[in-house]
Amino acid sequence: MTVNTKIQDKALMPEFTIDTVITDSGKEIPGIKRMYDIALAIKDSLMQWGGPGIGKSQAVQQWNQEKVEEYEARIKAGEKVKPWNPHVCDVRLSMKEPVDMVGVPIPSKDENGKTTTVWATPSMWPKDDGQYEGGVIHLDEMNQGQAAILNAAFQLIQDRALGEYKVPAGYIIIGSSNTSAYNSTVTDFSVPLSNRFSHFNIKPDFDSWLNYRMNNGGNLDVMQFLKTQDQSMLFDKKSMEAKVGSLSDAMYTDIVVTPRSWEVIEKVLELPDGNKSNGGFTIDEKQRYATGRLGLTLAAKLFTFLKDKSKYQDWHEILVEGKDFRDENSEQFWAVQMACMSAILNEKDDNTCRKYVLNFINATRKLKSAPYKIINVTQLARAKRLQGAFHIFNPMKDAKELIGLATTALRS
Fold it and tell me: For the chain, how many structural domains are there in total?
């Protein structure tokens, strides 16, 4: 199936089921609900795309109920947290006017009796009254909203405020839309609006759907029929494609990589390792979330690099043990060199910092590559940690190394 060239220029999104799926080999493939967990943990906004009727809105409601139950259990266990808001603020942008979002202007008199205009905040927005630990604002049918509505949504996401209204702390904003593959009458996101979201594609999955229906009163006859006859009938892709064209186009969206994208990735990587039961996230879950900011290809490159880092020399060998740089292969050298500089810059203890710098200097002098020597020397000279802090060095003991460093730079 050929993908439209214009579509193919866009970043490729990963496909997500609603719940985490365990394959026949026992491998866990994170579902979209785990991506909600990451977005909440790093205070990011999430945009989910997909076909009609596949459960995007229900996934938000299900996850919110799980959070309600989680916080009830934490309170019962004696933890000092507030309840989670049981009511999702569900706003369908296709049915809203700008005044519905911002509110209506009403006249008011100030303390001097002068008439001014204030905005009456719509009652649909959750109140910032400290009652809840957090909650969900769900902006549904986003790309079917008119341009003025999307501008209001942009302000809500960017500033977590809209006119007089401010989003309470602890709330997550989730957007949902059908892609243009299913609906040609949509409003394209501007680059700034698109870049405020991490983007994910939701696909129908029979096992995920069956698990939900089994636990929530689904009709047994329907479930048995689909299980024993043809599970693909859950979402009739053939009939859908006959009506709307290639659904492969739905895998591409306007992911825009900017410095803000990498700031989000930094937050993802800083999340604790582990799994849902211990409050952490697996490396696969982090990678799956990163695809929503970087696209599949760039995220795969990043995490391949991260997984290969175990092959690289540990900076402790150089700065703590006083060993030489083990490899001058460009990729590995830069990874180790940057780790060393980061350790020097972030070391608060003067004596330890001095040891790190002297060992780094000694390892630098033994490098074969003159450009690498110059870069190391230059970065040390520019290091904010060392500017105005030469008192950490011993003039008598360290002079030889410092002079040797300068000589190395001049010779190179």
Answer: 2
